[in-house]
């Protein structure tokens, strides 16, 4: 009996200990706030900054066990690498991601279409559109088209020529890119049970749809006026997740809007094509002016910081290296115009290279990223004026005669203080100097300095 009592006593102590250990967990579960809908926004081009912001919030929503992530979208497209980063986060998310093209007048073009297809729920508001998902090669010229079969009889097309015509005469590299994008979007469509045939057309033909058309052919799941109405429509809807089928309960969900923090905002500012363009120019000009005024430090330090920030932006943005080369060449020619005046030939050539390089730096049609043309023209005119005037002034100042020190004494006119045959005193600019002459000189006679030997001036009579 004593052994039984001891066993019960030990068991009771163990259960009490386990209960005490579980108390923090129970209290934490009781204190956990109810699940909500986390709303984030993709407003503008798909860039590394927007990708970081979206991925970070999807992961945080999973940690907080949110009911769903609501991604509102209005984008012209953007970078393929950033789009795929966002899609990987959506596909791996244990929390359902609802992508909503909103407000009215918004679009999910190019990369936005891929994100919409990858989402667990795809929704649009009225007066919105999606599509135009054809990828285009970025940076550098396209390869030459494949040569036609010269042995084919006249008036008859070979099988290869027929395929080329069907693909719009695209190069082999362009076909590979389009085939890859088509397979990727078609795979997303099959995963989410959406219209795979239209996905193929969106990539190969660049077609677009309105919200009503997209709903009718099964590209999206529903249309709603606003996020609140969308949650009402989602209530009770079943969606397929990696862990199994999930029934949404969204009728009474609170929407928590997550804005980008200061780091994301800073990254967004730096990676804006217009800002990156200005930073690059400020960096180059700062280093140029530091070179003409060594020791000033401020232009050099500021220029180095701006140039490093610009290089970081260019690292994550799709730039055309020919455009960069033309920009540098244009600035170099405008600088050369200040040193070797060529009646405007170098300056005009540099200005033309500068403008062409600025327009080639990004390609708006491909990525939704570009430098605004008024900024390019304004900077080009300001650069031409600044470099030809400021550097011109610096060059003319360097060519001016010396106005201080020993070198300045040469050719000055002085007056003999007292008679002397070989060496005696002279007054120059109110100072008395010892002078040496090859001919006798008399008091009051004017003399000119022809050389300086230590502290003795070599003088000759002024005629």
Task: Provide an overview of this structure.
Helix content is 50%, strand content 16%. It is elongated, with a radius of gyration of 38 Å. It starts with a helix and ends with a strand. The protein has 16 helices and 16 strands. The protein folds into 3 domains: 33-145 and 171-261, 2-enoyl-CoA Hydratase, Chain A, domain 1 (Alpha-Beta Complex); 271-399, no CATH class; 406-461, Beta Barrel (OB fold (Dihydrolipoamide Acetyltransferase, E2P)). Mean pLDDT is 82; it is low at 25-33 and 137-167. The chain is of the alpha/beta class. Helix 3 packs parallel to helix 4 and helix 13 (321-339) packs parallel to helix 16. It has helices at 2-31, 48-63, 80-92, 111-118, 159-166, 172-192, 196-204, 211-216, 227-234, 262-270, 273-292, 298-316, 321-339, 345-360, 364-367, 373-399; strands at 37-43, 68-74, 97-101, 107-109, 121-124, 129-131, 208-210, 222-223, 238-241, 244-247, 255-257, 413-416, 423-428, 431-436, 446-453, 456-461.
Query: What is the architecture of the largest domain at the second tier of CATH?
Result: Alpha-Beta Complex
Taken as a percent bin, the fraction of beta residues is 15-25%
Q: What about the largest sheet?
A: 6 strands, parallel
Whole-number mean pLDDT: 82
Q: CA-to-CA gap between the ends? A: 141 Å
Rounded to the nearest angstrom, the radius of gyration is 38 Å
CATH level 3 topology of the largest domain: 2-enoyl-CoA Hydratase, Chain A, domain 1
